[in-house]
Every structure is written in C-alpha cells, then in structure tokens.
Amino acid sequence: MADAYADLTVIRRLLNETKTWAFVGLGDNPGREVHTQARLLQQRGKRIIPVHPAGRTVLGEQGYASLADIPASERPIDVVGVYRRAEHAGAVVDEAIAAGAKAVWLPLDVIDEAAAKRAQEAGLDVVMDRCPAVEWALRRN
Length: 141
Prior knowledge:
CATH superfamily: NAD(P)-binding Rossmann-like Domain
Organism: Actinomadura rudentiformis
Distance between the termini: 26 Å
CATH class: Alpha Beta
Number of helices: 5
Largest sheet: 5 strands, parallel
Domain CoA-binding: 14-110
Protein name: CoA-binding protein
Shape: globular
Structural class: alpha/beta
C-alpha cells in the first residue's frame, strides 16, 4: 500500500516547489541518514529546520525540540520529514498536522498507513517509503 503514497506529481512538487523542510529526528550525528538527507536538500536550496529533543543547531540551522516549538517566524513548514521509526511516525504526523505543515515525507521503511491517511484527510500531501535523494536523482522535470 505504500506505493499509494508515491505519486510522482506530488514528489516532483515537493522537491521542486517547496522551500522549508523540518526534519524530525535530525540531531548532530553526521552518520545518520537523516543528516545526509537534510544536507542534500539544504545544498539544493531548501531551508531545513532540525527537530530533535536536544534542540541543537545542526547544519548551521537552529534546532527545536518539537514541531510545536518552531516559532511562527520560522513558518510555514512546507514538508515534515519523519525520520523516526515507524512505530513513532503516527505521532509525528499528528504533530505535523497540528503545526500546519503542508506535507509529510516518510522515508524508506517508515510506513504507517493510518497516519498517512490521517494526513491526507487533513489536506496534507503524503510521500511514504521513498528516499528524497533517490527521488531527486530520478525526478523528471
């Protein structure tokens, strides 16, 4: 069912037209995949917002402990990257909805069908079980 959340039109729009991505799970460990993905999108002109309980500055951007802690001056949040284990993804998606995000992106192997459905019902675009770096490389403008 995750393929239902891999619409190429949505993927292209998120990669090409968005500006601000909040990465939930982005801490200061450069060995983690979330760090690699955030850096890639930052290098391609996206503004990133690290979201991690430590709330540290990462990749030169001020971090916040939760999506709710991101101040209004840092919004809107175009995409929330959900770099948490699948069992925690639903809570992050609910936070993204509450924060007024426009989309959620659940990377490879982070699958939560119920959370994806809630996000869509709330009007958010949803990409699930896809890697931003791979999709960026494959995108057909």
